[in-house]
Amino acid sequence: MITKVLLLSLVLLGLAVAGIAIKIWGKKDGKFAGTCASQSPFLNKDGEACSFCGKTPDQQTDCKGSK
What highest taxon heads this organism's lineage (predicted)? Predict the structure, then answer.
């Protein structure tokens, strides 16, 4: 029973990693679009600035890590 659960967990984890790899491979220059949490109104209800790039939600276009 435990080996089945372990095998299922490893297969699901492998599918997740493969999905992320395919997403990176399919994007131009292998970059994720919109990785700042401040771009999402669901995650940033208070309108706080991004802790990575320092932009507020109304300034957000792309998160490159420069302030």
Answer: Bacteria
